[in-house]
Amino acid sequence: MSDKDAVMKGLLEKLISKAKNAHRDTKITTIAGATQIISGHSVQDQEIEIGEVSVSWTDGTRTFLIPYSSIDHILMV
After folding, report:
1. Which pTM does this prediction carry?
2. Residue 49 pLDDT greater than 60, yes or no
């Protein structure tokens, strides 16, 4: 794991936890411009896995995976 991956993993863990506790969403935008949202409202439907090089989650029907190296910015909305 690179230093950037380690920093991004720590940031995502903290931000997703804070967003879930506040019932807010986490919005991730990639370098390519794609935007994905991890819902803070449907806690029971999502399984979030913050791994060594990527974050993945499911919304109940689809599974998303974003490598840390492709993340441009993250927001709590």
Report:
1. 0.82
2. yes
